[in-house]
User: What shape does this take?
Amino acid sequence: MMPMDWDTLKAACLACEKCDLCKTRTQVVFGTGSPTAEVLFVGEGPGQKEDEQGLPFVGRSGQLLDVYLETIKLSRQKNIFIANIVKCRPPGNRDPLPEEREACLPWLREQFSLIRPKIIVCLGRIAAQVIIKPDYAIMKEHGTWVEKNGVWMTATLHPAALLRNPKQKPLAFEDYVAIREKIHEVCAHTY
Ligand code: SF4
Assistant: This one.
């Protein structure tokens, strides 16, 4: 993919037909937030509400995500960007297929190279396995940090998983506290 500016990238992504998910989507969910954010959150893919509204994390799990974000003074309106591994909704909320991930990843890579975040937070197992390592064990490894080429990466439990297992909420809270500490350590203008 050729280097491009943010608006060109967004327009091209919104018209993408590189995999079969384009046939069943309502709209592409490009992502939301500040293109100059130092912190990039990455989820798995849009669900029904996200597909309808064209925005990531707008359903119940998105509301829960916003609660955690607010706790550590982050906001999708201000100082982070939120994107997904696949930008169109897999039918019936199934996991995205490997070929769909492969087709879609160049969009995320392009977003990454324009945003140039200092921190990437993977939301859930699928994002962590694509971005951090293929055998990432989310329950065991969430909240740990790795550094790759000057970018700090971590993962936390997916907010949808927390809605299913509310007992795990304190574990996620600890991850967000650690994210706040890492922001203080490596970011210049997030806070
Ligand atoms: S999922 Fe990604 S690659 Fe597939 S059509 Fe949507 S934007 Fe294009």
Summary: The chain has a mean pLDDT of 96. The radius of gyration is 15 Å. The domain at 22-184 is CATH 3.40.470.10 (Uracil-DNA Glycosylase, subunit E).
